[in-house]
Write a structure and sequence with these properties.
With about 350 residues, this protein is mostly helical. Helix content is about 80%, strand content about 0%.
Length: about 350
C-alpha cells in the first residue's frame, strides 16, 4: 500500500504542483522557488511513506530507541546536508530539496534494514505476506481515516490561512503565518509524542479488559500533557520576539510575528485536551468519533472562522484570531464529550481511583 500510494501521490502532485502551490499562498514572486523545491522533493515521496509508515512496526515491538535512531538519522543528516548543498554547492532552494530527499532516503533505509535483516526484529518483511487482504486492510483503513483527515484538513487550513493573508495583507503576512504555523507544530510535538507513545498502551490494555490500567495511563497522559502545554504556551507568548528572530532576519517580519504570536497561540493553554481526548478515542476503537472531533476544530470551526472574520472586519489581523477561537471551542467541546462517555468506555474496576475530569 505504501509503495502504491507513493507512486500515485508523486504523479498527481507533479501534474498539479503549480496550481496547488498558488492555493497554498505562493505569490508570483515566490512561485519559482516553490516549483524548484517541490519538483525535487516529490521524488522522495516513497522514502517519506516508507519511513513514516513502517516505523510504527518497530515501535510496536518495544524497540523505541531504534525508531528514534531512524528519526534522528534523517533529521541530523538534513541539518548537515542543507548548508552543504545550499551554500557550498550553490544549489539554493534545489539544494535544500536534494538534502531533504537524501536524508529521508537514509531514514527509509534504516527502517527497511531493521525490518528486513535484523535478528532483533520479531516482525520481518516478507514478499509472500504482501498480498492484499481486505480482511486485514479494511479495519486498518477505517482506523486510519481519522489521522488522515487530521493531516488533510491541516493542509486545507494552510490554504485558507495563507490565501487569506495574501488577499487581505501581503507577502509579509504570508511570512508570519508560515512562522506561526511552524511554532504551533513545535508546541504540539511534545504532546503528540506523548500521545503516540501512550496510544498502544491504552489500546493493548483496553483489548485485554484492563480498564484500570487504561485509566491510569490516561491520567498520567493528561497530567504531563497539560504541564508541557502550559510551559510551551508561556514560552511562545512571552518570548515571541526572540523566537521569531530565529526564523528570519527581516526586522519587519520579526516585529509583525511577535505581535501576532500571543494571539495565534492563545488557545494552546487548553488545546492539549483536544489532542489527548481525540487520540484516546481512536485508541479505544472509536474511530468515527475521533474523525468527527478531528473535523470539528479545523473544518467546522477554523476554516469558516478564517474566511468569515476578515470578511466581516475587513482586517487581516482577525485571521490570527480564528486559530485560538477554534482551538478553545473544540477543546472544551471534545473534553466534555469525552468525559460524558468516560465511564461507559472504561467501566470502573475494583481499586480504581474515581474519575477526575
Amino acid at each position: 500500500l505504501l509503495l502504491g500510494l507513493s507512486a500515485v501521490l508523486t504523479v498527481v502532485f507533479q501534474l498539479f504542483k503549480a496550481p496547488l502551490l498558488y492555493w497554498f499562498g505562493a505569490s508570483d514572486a515566490l512561485i519559482g522557488y516553490s516549483l524548484d523545491y517541490i519538483t525535487i522533493y516529490l521524488y522522495g515521496t516513497v522514502f517519506v511513506q516508507l519511513a513514516l509508515g513502517l516505523t510504527p512496526f518497530i515501535t510496536a515491538q518495544g524497540d523505541t530507541l531504534v525508531s528514534l535512531g531512524g528519526v534522528l538519522l534523517g533529521a541530523g543528516l538534513n541539518l548537515v546536508l542543507d548548508p552543504l548543498f545550499i551554500f557550498v554547492f550553490g544549489l539554493g532552494v534545489r539544494g535544500a530539496a536534494i538534502a531533504t530527499v537524501l536524508s529521508q532516503g537514509c531514514s527509509a533505509a534504516w527502517v527497511l534494514l531493521y525490518l528486513g535483516r535484523s535478528r532483533r526484529s520479531r516482525l520481518r518483511l516478507d514478499a509472500r505476506a504482501m498480498r492484499p487482504s481486505w480482511r486485514v486492510l479494511g479495519p486498518v483503513l477505517a482506523l486510519g481515516v481519522s489521522p488522515f483527515a487530521m493531516s488533510a484538513t491541516e493542509s486545507a487550513v494552510t490554504v485558507v490561512l495563507t490565501s487569506g493573508m495574501q488577499r487581505y495583507g501581503n507577502d509579509l503576512y504570508v511570512g508570519t503565518i508560515t512562522i506561526l504555523q511552524s511554532c504551533m507544530l513545535l508546541i504540539g510535538m511534545p504532546v503528540r509524542g506523548l500521545v503516540a507513545g501512550t496510544e498502544p498502551i491504552i489500546s493493548f490494555n483496553y483489548g485485554a479488559g484492563q480498564y484500570g490500567r487504561c485509566r491510569e495511563a490516561l491520567r498520567k497522559l493528561m497530567l504531563y500533557s497539560g504541564m508541557i502545554s502550559v510551559c510551551m504556551a508561556a514560552v511562545f507568548t512571552f518570548w515571541a520576539r526572540p523566537i521569531a528572530r530565529a526564523f528570519t532576519a527581516d526586522e519587519a517580519l520579526v516585529e509583525l510575528t511577535a505581535r501576532a504570536m500571543p494571539i495565534f497561540v492563545g488557545g494552546v493553554w487548553v488545546f492539549w485536551l483536544q489532542i489527548v481526548c481525540q487520540h484516546v478515542f481512536m485508541a479505544l476503537g472509536q474511530d468515527k468519533i475521533s474523525l468527527c472531533l478531528a473535523l470539528l476544530r479545523k473544518v467546522i470551526l477554523l476554516v469558516p472562522l478564517a474566511l468569515l472574520l476578515p470578511w466581516l472586519t475587513r482586517s487581516v489581523v482577525s485571521i490570527y484570531w480564528a486559530e485560538p477561537i477554534a482551538d478553545i471551542a473544540a477543546s472544551l467541546t471534545t473534553t466534555a464529550f469525552f468525559f460524558s462517555r468516560y465511564n461507559a468506555l472504561l467501566p470502573p474496576q475494583k481499586g480504581d481511583a474515581p474519575c477526575q475530569p
